[in-house]
């Protein structure tokens, strides 16, 4: 009995001690010669993330002054051998949800501070950009736009790092055409778990290249990435329509992603029991039919919003404005635009005709057609606008019990029938995204795991749980997530989690399925001491006493 009590005290105090910066770590890192610096005191930021639920204090934070700092640090920890419990986590923008970029008692590498990897855009027939693994996509976009170029595949939010999203997949409404972000990378520079600095691509060190893409940070720290670019559109027509019938909504989404000539971005979201929905939209969208739209009532209803965009260029936008004016203004204006360049006059109807033709194929509720025209940058950076609003109300840095699922197409209706309106009775705590993706645009040599069907849906429950509004909101949201996961299990829906979170290795094995063997093999090759990304909780560093 006494023995068990002692063991209990050791375990509990031991786990508390893990949260205190270990003075032994500072002396063990003393021999390291680096360009940047290691901080042992100001480490609390590295114990936070967007999820706001997990706080694991590291012993040190590395602010790398160069790529060699990252390599030297990992090499040093590797050299300490299996007798050391030190681990290393790359931290991008810290927008993980459950401590995935944290390292309990270990070293966190602040990738955003990485110096010596400036963003370089290469024009030409197949343009690309070389950027630091710690660069924010938003900053990379700004640099590319100076050259009239932009990456092809996006996330909905741009204030995430290249290394952070490439370690997952990076998906948004362009993925049906271009694949996820991990399908748009030519080359990576990586520091492996042994501290080697390697270049890799489909031709060179291909196994490491594919391992790292979607690899949850397990095989190396991405210090640089070469990303495919395309000519950047200047403007987008941004359209939203509503459905009350789930089958029509998803059939239309699937039809749109199957067409060659289609919208440039296709997403969707679920709205449950929202008051004054269309009135809220009016601040940024114009209703096609204002009178009918004002009569539309969303209260108590389950609705499905299809959201899409069509890119067009500035000249067309100007002509469109002029055409609008032509209909509404006096003769002098009429005279000024009487002879616009012929090519532009011909292009305008084509763009619009294409949009009109696509809209005419859809079965949405006619009074709910809303449109807007914004710059490409404004569209891509749209979530940041919400971030600014939420921050001003103190609603950004709150717990985020998010759940992201990839549901096979053949079971999406069963899923919707049980979850929307039954398990989830309103969508007031955050958006619920739902849109289709296609397996053929994903490369099965990467580490990303998706369902085994050509079409599958991302269903993302993006809840916020501010304690100011309701003390139980976090608990309720977590229970709701559990009910959704339990339902999938009981109904035999072979879904996969996106941004997966598991705590036990057997759950990870189930997640990877028959790809687990390869995943574990790659871990053994590139990070044999299990040093990297411990916050994913896939592999546990085993400490052996000598
Ligand atoms: P971090 O949270 O810092 O790190 C994530 C993981 O990657 C950790 O395990 C970390 O150790 C590892 N890592 C970080 N940098 C590197 C590196 N250079 N090399 C190797 N490993 C590294 N995802 C989508 O796909 N589509 C979306 O539309 C989308 N929208 C989002 C919107 C918001 C508001 C938020 C908060 C997240 C969203 N995400 C989306 C999820 C996002 O892609 C992931 O959470 C991503 O990991 C965050 O990037 P980060 O730079 O903050 O990474």
TrEMBL record:
Q: Record's Pfam families?
A: Cytokin-bind, FAD_binding_4
Q: Where is the signal peptide, in residue numbers?
A: 1-17
Q: For this chain's UniProt record, which GO biological process terms are given?
A: cytokinin metabolic process
Q: What is the lineage of its organism?
A: Eukaryota, Viridiplantae, Streptophyta, Embryophyta, Tracheophyta
Record's keyword terms, sorted: FAD, Flavoprotein, Oxidoreductase, Signal
Catalyses which reaction?
N(6)-dimethylallyladenine + A + H2O = 3-methyl-2-butenal + adenine + AH2
Q: Which domain of life is it from?
A: Eukaryota
MF terms per GO, please?
cytokinin dehydrogenase activity; FAD binding
Listed InterPro entries: Cytok_DH_C_sf (IPR016170), Cytokinin_DH_FAD/cytokin-bd (IPR015345), FAD-bd_PCMH (IPR016166), FAD-bd_PCMH-like_sf (IPR036318), FAD-bd_PCMH_sub1 (IPR016167), FAD-bd_PCMH_sub2 (IPR016169), FAD-linked_Oxase-like_C (IPR016164), FAD-linked_Oxidoreductases_BP (IPR050432)
User: By what name is this protein known?
Assistant: cytokinin dehydrogenase
Domain FAD-binding PCMH-type: start-end pairs: 54-232
Q: Which cofactor does it need?
A: FAD
Give the similarity note: Belongs to the oxygen-dependent FAD-linked oxidoreductase family.
Q: What is its EC number?
A: 1.5.99.12
């Amino acid at each position: 009995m006494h023995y068990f009590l002692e063991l209990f005290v050791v375990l509990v105090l031991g786990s508390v001690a893990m949260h205190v910066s270990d003075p032994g770590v500072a002396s063990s890192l003393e021999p390291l010669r680096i360009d940047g610096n290691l901080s042992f005191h100001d480490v609390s930021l590295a114990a936070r993330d967007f999820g706001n639920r997990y706080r694991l204090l590291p012993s040190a934070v590395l602010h790398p002054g160069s790529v060699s700092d990252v390599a030297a640090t990992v090499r040093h920890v590797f050299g300490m051998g299996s007798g050391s419990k030190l681990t290393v986590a790359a931290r991008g923008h810290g927008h993980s949800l459950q401590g995935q970029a944290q390292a309990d008692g270990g070293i966190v590498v602040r990738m955003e501070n990485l110096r010596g990897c400036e963003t370089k855009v290469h024009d030409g027939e197949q343009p690309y950009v070389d950027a630091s693994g710690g660069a924010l996509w938003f900053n990379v976009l700004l640099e590319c736009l100076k050259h009239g170029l932009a990456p092809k595949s996006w996330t909905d939010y741009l204030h995430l790092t290249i290394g952070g999203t490439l370690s997952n997949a990076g998906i948004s409404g362009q993925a049906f055409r271009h694949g996820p972000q991990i399908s748009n990378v030519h080359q990576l520079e990586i520091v492996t778990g042994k501290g080697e600095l390697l270049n890799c691509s489909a031709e060179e060190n291909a196994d490491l290249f594919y391992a790292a893409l979607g690899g949850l940070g397990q095989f190396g720290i991405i210090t640089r990435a070469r990303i495919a670019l395309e000519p950047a559109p200047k403007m987008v027509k941004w359209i939203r329509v509503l459905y009350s019938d789930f089958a029509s909504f998803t059939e239309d989404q699937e039809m749109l992603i199957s067409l060659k000539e289609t919208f440039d971005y296709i997403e969707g979201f679920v709205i449950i029991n929202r008051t004054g929905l269309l009135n809220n939209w009016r601040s940024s969208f114009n209703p096609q039919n204002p009178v009918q739209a004002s009569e539309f009532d969303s209260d108590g209803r389950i609705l499905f919003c299809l959201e899409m965009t069509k890119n067009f260029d500035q000249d067309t936008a100007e002509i469109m404005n002029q055409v609008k004016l032509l209909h509404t203004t006096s003769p002098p204006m009429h005279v000024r635009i009487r002879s616009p360049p012929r090519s532009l006059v011909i292009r305008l109807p084509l763009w619009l005709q294409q949009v009109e033709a696509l809209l005419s194929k859809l079965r949405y509720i006619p009074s709910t057609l809303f449109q807007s025209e914004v710059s490409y940058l404004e569209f891509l950076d749209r979530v940041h606008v919400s971030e600014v609003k939420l921050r001003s109300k103190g609603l950004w840095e709150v717990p985020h019990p998010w759940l992201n699922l990839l549901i096979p197409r053949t079971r999406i209706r069963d899923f919707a029938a049980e979850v929307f309106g039954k398990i989830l009775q309103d969508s007031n705590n955050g958006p619920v995204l739902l849109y289709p993706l296609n397996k053929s645009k994903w490369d099965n040599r990467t580490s990303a795991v998706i369902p085994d069907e050509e079409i599958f849906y991302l269903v993302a429950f993006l809840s916020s749980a501010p304690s100011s509004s309701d003390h139980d909101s976090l608990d309720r949201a977590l229970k709701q997530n559990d009910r959704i996961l339990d339902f999938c299990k009981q109904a035999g829906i072979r879904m996969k989690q996106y941004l997966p979170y598991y705590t036990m290795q057997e759950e990870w094995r189930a997640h990877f399925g028959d790809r687990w063997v390869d995943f574990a093999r790659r871990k053994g090759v590139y990070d044999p001491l299990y040093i990297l990304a411990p916050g994913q909780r896939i592999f546990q560093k085993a400490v052996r006493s000598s």
